[in-house]
Design brief:
Length: about 120
Amino acid sequence: MDKILKRKEVYKGNAIKCFKKVLTNPLNINIINKGMTKADIVNALFENVGLPKKESEEIIEIILETMKQTFAEGESIKISGFGSFNVRKKRSRRGRNPKTGEDIEISPRSVVTFRPSSILKATVE
């Protein structure tokens, strides 16, 4: 873990750029169409950027862990040319159990929403 944390400082500036490059690279369209997994992102980073697979995996883990921590703090993430992730607070509300028809109280919660940038929308269309 210490090794990853030391590398975190080295990769912090370039990790988001690499991640964005991998996700928006036209060569990865087939991967995206079948449903992309974390392993697919690691392989794409390995193939497109040339980093070893172990380091590629560590970078993806660092990015995802940083995103999780940011969401846990209630902050949003904006990636230029890709989109923005926002944490939205939902208040409690009345609901209904579809199986029994019983009225229930749905507790308040936070959800993460994604809004694609106009560049990403144009790429997808």
